[in-house]
User: Fold this.
Amino acid sequence: MKVLFVPSDNNPVSGAFRSMAALNKILNEEYGIQTLVVLPTEVGEGAKLLDDMNIRHTCIRSYNWIVKSDRELTEKEHEQKAEEKEKNKAAVKRFVELIKKEKIDLIHINTTYTYVAAIAGRITNTPIVWHLREFLEEDQKRRIYDREFGYKLIGKADKIITISKALYKKYESILPVDKMQVIYNGIDTDTFYKPEKQIFINDDRYIFVCAGSVNYNKGQDSLVHACGKLMKKRGISNFELWLVGFYDERYEGIINRVAQKYGIEEKVKLLGPQKDVASYFEKADIAFMCSKFEAFGRVTVEGMLSGPLMIGANTGGTTELIEDGKTGLLYEQGNSDDLCDKIYFALQHKEAMRKIAAAGRRYMYENMSARRNAAEIVEAYKEVIKNYKRYEVYAVIVTYNRLNMLKDCLAAVLKQTYASLKVVVVDNASTDGTQEYIKALKNERILYINTGKNVGGAGGFHRGIKEAYLKGAKWVWIMDDDVIPKPDALQKLMEALKVVKPHKTSFLASCVYGLNGEAMNTPGVDLRSKNGYPFWYEYLDRGLVKLNAATFVSILVNAAAIEKCGLPCSNFFIWGDDTEYTKRLYRNFGLAYLVGASKVVHARANASDLSIFTETNPNRISIYSYKVRNTLIYTREYAGEESFNQKLVLFEKDCKKLKVSDDPYKEQKIAAIRQGIQNYYRYDFTSFRNRFDLFYEDRECGQSKTGKNKQDKSLRSQRNKTNIFRRFIQKIRNAYRYWKKNGFKATVRRAIYGRPNTDK
Assistant:
């Protein structure tokens, strides 16, 4: 199993980060699970911690979706979030590429803060475990920028883990309860567990420790108040209070003012962040958790494992970790008098407190170890993967205003005997109720995509094949909406893979028949020679024939071939996109085969090849220009210059034939052919040259801004060069005319002094 971990920061001091690192180590060493941590930034020392623990990691720059919740956002902050959202699109693309490259089985998102990997997981059809670790609004005064989108995305995760029952209770009305599970954080017991620890052994000085971020939400000011009252009201002054962790400068001022109020400035020490927190707990007699709303309290567990008595506020996850009077003491959060009383009580009942501290230590060791946490996480992984529906084959059907045909095609595809099949329906913005029909089916095996406009068969297949590939398909089954496959058509294609070498096979094609049983869409047979003798018949006895090209009427394409050879050219729009694509697969990846046992019916009224000569619908004549243009493009690419010139001659002959014919639409047809030839010479070959790039978006499918800018810049550069040359030639011509009219001397004088007022 390969698991991708996604933390929200690169901070080794963060409790969430430390928990993730400890989990990774155990998964790697004890369960044989391969993990990869993707850091959102290179800034920070978390990477060093991962290196020390031999945990693989990389970095994909991304931005979180968290904003302040205690005030309205400024216009500038809104603009910043919009900008970060745009930048995150590039991060999503990198995540998708990484997931595909590493063959990730599961994504583990470590906090509520980050979301980019979740979108990539949805795109690649990778199961997601989302670990919620924070009380955002209650504890951190933070929230998700777009709550509706955020909680909808989290809710789509396959498993949602909360680190306490308190956190579970918060989200049970927001997120799907059937996906939620409480798993307490695991702590490195090897580092923190001190079974021999004794407290209150030095009556001359008591050490109080509060570890974790020092800020308003963590409530350390109440602790300083309580310590001040302990001295002023209870007469106990032989103590020191150590505050260990990052501290806010403004809050530092509050802490100092409170300490000055009671005259305990020398006793209160802000120590800042410390790598070895365990050593401070080891010296402590009492440890504190004063947070106003702690989701779990990692330092609570660390403190209790280390041996001191733990006194915690009666809020959030703290109440689940401390059982008052049995494993620690609880006080009313924010009530410094109550906290002071609890401290005084502990100092007056030392022997009883030693037993309580020991009980807390044992409880944490038995229930909050990193190994126990890892075991529960692994079981959650197994459950997710077991229940996750993966499909080996994705069928891609492109449709446009042919709902009746689509119904028959879908029914036949969904009845296939090969069960591991999901269907991608690409709708070119049909207006005949196609979208409503698909939604009414409510079939989880159907993924519906509306392109928003008619991008042609080429654009539709470009979009659909890409979607299927990113969803994790191993094979993509391609067809138009007027194809009716036999119930075992796909089964026979998959069985044929047992005969050939699947890893070297680019695609398989079905035998296509018309409504009357006549052969249709006949593919191009591979006539390459071996030792001077054709071997096209090599697999005939097994019902297979080697091909070099086919149409998009029931072909099964290898996902590995898609990865290497890219997608169909979407700006072909119609005609020739299938020929070009299958030739590309054949030439650059591997062999292709016609499978005799796999049969489909092409429900087209005219079984013969579509021709401009036989076309009787005047509304369709203009689109034949695509056929001419695209034929010239792929002929030049795959057959060479000589064949290209022959095609040009043939198109000219077609025009002459039409000119002398009695076809009522001959002028329109001649214009379509001429237009196709002109369009070839005007064709932007940038997209064609980039057709091997799986993530390149050409114009008909919504070219990326970056690609378009580069292309526009290149075109501008070419135009500028042309204009400069033209201006240079014009200057020479003007100079020549001036010389002929005014003579050599006047011309020289003009060249030296500029244009004179007179030519005397």
Q: What stands out?
A: Residues 720-760 form one domain. The longest helix spans residues 705-742. Residues 213 and 568 are 54 Å apart (CA to CA). Residues 699-716, 756-760 have pLDDT under 50 and may be disordered.
